Amino acid sequence: MGTQNKSDRSCFRRYLCLIILVVLVVIAAAVAIPLVLIKPWNKSKSSSPEEIPAVLNNNTITPSSDDSAKVNSYTPALNQPFDYANGTVKMRGVNLGGWLVLEPFITPSLFDPYIASGAVDEWTLCTILGPQAAATLLEQHYASWVTEDTFIKLKDLGLNHVRIPIGFWAMGNLTADEPYVADISWKYLLRGIEWARKYGMRVMVELHGAPGSQNGWNHSGRSGQIDWINGTMGPQNALRTLPYLEKMATFFSNPSYAHVNPIMGMLNEPAAYIIGAEKVMAWYKQAFATVRAATGTGEGHGPWAIIHDGFLGLEAWSGFMKGSDRLMLDAHQYIMFDENLMSMNQTAQLKFACQQWGASSTTSTKNFGPTMVGEFSVAVNDCATYLNGVGVGYRWDGTFPGSVAHSANSTCTHENDASTYSTQYKQFLTDFFSAQLDAFEQGAGWFFWNFKTESNPLWSYFDGVDNGWIPQDVNNRPPSYCTRMGLAVNGTN
Ligand SMILES: *[C@@H]1O[C@H](CO)[C@@H](O)[C@H](O)[C@H]1NC(C)=O
Ligand SMILES: *[C@@H]1O[C@H](CO)[C@@H](O)[C@H](O)[C@H]1NC(C)=O
Ligand SMILES: *[C@@H]1O[C@H](CO)[C@@H](O)[C@H](O)[C@H]1NC(C)=O
Ligand SMILES: *[C@@H]1O[C@H](CO)[C@@H](O)[C@H](O)[C@H]1NC(C)=O
Ligand SMILES: *[C@@H]1O[C@H](CO)[C@@H](O)[C@H](O)[C@H]1NC(C)=O
Ligand SMILES: *[C@@H]1O[C@H](CO)[C@@H](O)[C@H](O)[C@H]1NC(C)=O
Ligand SMILES: CC(=O)N[C@H]1CO[C@H](CO)[C@@H](O)[C@@H]1O
User: Closest Cα to atom 3, ligand 5: which residue?
Assistant: First the structure.
């Protein structure tokens, strides 16, 4: 009994302790949670001074007048013509994506909730941070994501071109409701162009984000609605895009830039299949007229102009603007956004790359004219973190709205970890890369998406080289899968 009483009392004391403990925890939480929300120790990359990269402290980047660099023995020096129309030298390049236009899957760290909770694209990131903090964060990113070393590495891998996406905000003149950081990215573009010039690489600058968003995807700057041609401000935004193209065309026709910027992209991935093929085609005609009005006509008068197929398929552009001066068509060939392609087995996917993509490039070159592939990768699943948007799931494992898992056991758990890839899988990636190159070189050439990513190896050229499925010198590669298997890439079998 005594034991009983004693135990009752200590039990009471234990409850008291527990209550005091709970009260202390609540007080501690009350203090800590607001601190976390205020984030006085913001986990951005600038947290320690020595990590802050050098930023441009001036507004003038003086173009060098030396265009004699030759990137490799296969490619003409910058001051010699590059025959885009039917030369034997093909464009072999990478995209410098996730640099001057943010894309969550390329740099997931910039979309870490610690930086700006709720950000899903550049628009929301800038809105949440506010102009000052957004400019600081972006400038640190511009200064560190691409450096002179990037160009040295690309040259050493045998590449001869880079494609650089920019947003209209790089050229200023924003409306009051547009939160983008204006102008700063243009300086970094110019600095990048000087590095390209130094190593003899040609640069295709492309408008990737138009006012209102031409596709409603995050990489246009703003995900959500298409308010370009489509929508209440759509007609106005489509018109407003033209002066930006005029500015680019004028700039790149200047003798200081003409050699290093011989091609420019007028607009990335307008969603013509939603907006309407005729409307987008009519806009491209206007855009091309704007560009040629600024540059003049004929070789030596400004850059080639590139149009994107708008996901209509290359055949839809057969005969489009026939006879135009230096107009090229761009298609982006991907497996993982198409459930039918993704559900094929690897043998079928390789065959598809050789035969279908090869035939597409061949036929379009005949029926339209010069045709390039401005984006492709070796990914055969959509598991890359944030690939479908921040907080959006994956088709591969069935977590994407409306999708069905690739197979009963498909998970994304190890798909982004190259150290877990089997020898067989790496051989497949090697073959898939080589098959695509052969197919796309039936046209004017290709640009891999992307030169690097923070954590998605199937989308990173540098990771592909490090892990062995992309060759050290892309000009000097073993016979491709298509060649070995006797699969024609010119549409003849
Ligand atoms: C501007 O800054 C760049 C990079 O820091 C530097 O290379 C260049 O010489 C500077 N130009 C002028 C005019 O100060
Ligand atoms: C090169 O291509 C252009 C445009 O497609 C064509 O008009 C021309 O005849 C071609 N030149 C040669 C030498 O094949
Ligand atoms: C800025 O944009 C407006 C339309 O939004 C246009 O009327 C004006 O000409 C543009 N200004 C410059 C300097 O491009
Ligand atoms: C097209 O514009 C309308 C009207 O603004 C809008 O409701 C719709 O969502 C837009 N379509 C797309 C695909 O964004
Ligand atoms: C791959 O798919 C093709 C076409 O469906 C089929 O003919 C072939 O047998 C499959 N190969 C393997 C190894 O499953
Ligand atoms: C699922 O996993 C099990 C066990 O690892 C395996 O036996 C089965 O073949 C897999 N099924 C599919 C559809 O891949
Ligand atoms: C929500 C959103 O816009 N998601 C897009 C982000 O960009 C990827 C491609 O890089 C698209 O696949 C997503 O649909």
Answer: 348
